[in-house]
Write a structure and sequence with these properties.
35% of the residues lie in helices and 26% in strands. By secondary structure, it is an alpha/beta fold. The protein has a nine-stranded mixed beta sheet with strand order 3-4-5-2-6-1-7-8-9, with helices on both faces. Strand 8 (214-219), helix 8 and strand 9 (242-246) form a beta-alpha-beta unit. Helix 1 crosses helix 10 (268-284).
Length: 298
């Protein structure tokens, strides 16, 4: 099974819209949304959740009132002001550092697993999908991303899938690093703006650091053709393939409102562009005995 991860150096480039479009075309694929801090792929694919699992991203302190003598040591040592005057722990403020646990003379404070989010096995109209979400204010998204990818890979092996298509997080931080490790190919989505070019370069540097093959797709390329040319020149100088260029089209918004991938609106020009993009991807990541698909998956 070959793994394609779609990332972007910044948010708002259209990464998830492009992933959703590829999901309609990619043959025999398992889908995964690793943008667990702000997952959006489910808005396009409307997954039917088959199984739900709890994610624990860390620990939270708990005070046993039957043992606590309100000596105030815990409040003195907590640098996050997570313990109230009534000696209760505020979950949103507790960082799980353990200082209060170690310093409590009455051993009245313990650590409990923090319920930080959920992850899911789902079915979509384009195949099976593994996805997740962190609860508001929770952290350790890199750990949850790792869990989603692991589950998606195991599901792919079980279903004998040819491809794993991953919608990765934006940026270059810990969640992105967790998303791309061991991938067969990265598709970096950018747009012709100065900030997007800068962040694309950082994403490509990250891929180079981890020795992961990277390619580029320029979304909304026709909004600034001069900068599109700059992106193409930058990639050509570094022998980085630009696999596709997608036009700016308000039908992307129409598709989002309808909860669809843009391919499902059957706009000939866009469909052709995405089929071209997919075929270029499959030239790099051919599945044994498989040919590029010429239409939407059923």
């Amino acid at each position: 099974m070959k793994e394609l991860v779609v990332i972007s150096g910044k948010g708002g480039t259209g990464k998830t819209s492009i992933t959703g479009a590829l999901a309609t075309l990619m043959p025999n694929a398992i889908l995964a949304d690793c943008d667990v801090d702000a997952p959006d792929l489910h808005l396009l694919l409307n997954p039917d959740i088959q199984k739900k699992e709890t994610f624990s991203g860390g620990k939270v302190a708990r005070i046993d009132k039957t043992k606590c003598n309100e000596c105030n040591v815990c409040r003195q040592v907590c640098r996050f002001d997570a313990i109230t005057t009534s000696f209760a722990v505020e979950d949103m403020s507790c960082e799980g550092c353990g200082v209060c646990v170690w310093n409590c003379p009455e051993k009245a404070i313990s650590f409990e697993n923090r319920n930080s989010g959920e992850w899911y096995f789902s079915k979509t109209r384009f195949g099976e999908m593994v996805h997740a979400r962190l609860f508001p204010g929770e952290e350790n998204s890199g750990k949850l991303v790792t869990q989603v990818r692991k589950a998606a890979r195991e599901l792919g092996k079980e279903k004998n899938a040819d491809y794993l298509l991953v919608d990765g997080p934006p940026g270059v931080g810990c969640p992105v690093i967790s998303s791309i490790g061991g991938a067969d190919l990265l598709l970096v989505v950018t747009e012709p703006t100065r900030s997007a070019i800068h962040d694309m370069q950082r994403a490509l540097d990250l891929a180079k650091h981890f020795n992961i093959p990277a390619t580029v797709c320029i979304n909304k390329y026709d909004l600034n053709k001069e900068m599109t040319g700059e992106i193409e020149s930058y990639c050509a100088d570094r022998n980085l393939p630009v696999l596709g260029k997608i036009v700016f089209d308000k039908e992307f918004i129409t598709a989002q409102i309808q909860g669809k991938a843009v391919i499902e609106l059957d706009i000939p020009g866009l469909k052709t562009s995405f089929q071209f993009l997919l075929n270029k991807i499959l030239e790099i990541l051919p599945a044994e005995g498989k040919e590029p698909l010429d239409g939407t998956r059923k």
